[in-house]
Amino acid sequence: FISAHTLPDDSFTVMKYYGYGAEGSPINAAPTNANGIAYIARNTYDYMTIIAVPYDNSGSYTRVKDAGSWSGWTHS
Fold first, then answer.
1. How far from the centroid of its chain's Cα atoms is residue 29's Cα?
2. Which region holds residue 40: left if phi is over 0, alpha if psi is between -120 and 50, else beta?
3. Which of these, 60, 40, 61, lies nearest to 50 by C-alpha position?
4. Phi/psi of residue 6, each to 5°?
5. 42-74, pLDDT tens digit by residue?
6. In the 8-state DSSP scheme, what is residue 34?
7. CA-CA-CA-CA torsion sign (51, 30, 12, 5)
8. Residue 18, SS3?
9. CA 32/CA 55 separation, integer angstroms
């Protein structure tokens, strides 16, 4: 599977992700237990932004990696 950490630098990717505990999910620590679509902007390994939109219509979630540290999910 392709994970956010293996994407090329300076890239923007859209991919399906899987809910809690699913193996092979491209994003770690999914925001809900629903599958969904992730929009991933990667500058480098240490700087990324993920927008996750679960298929269960529960809203959208954002998470950023800044200087190597991930923030928690923020719900919109």
1. 8
2. beta
3. 40
4. -100, 0
5. 999 999 999 999 999 999 999 999 999 999 999
6. S
7. positive
8. coil
9. 10
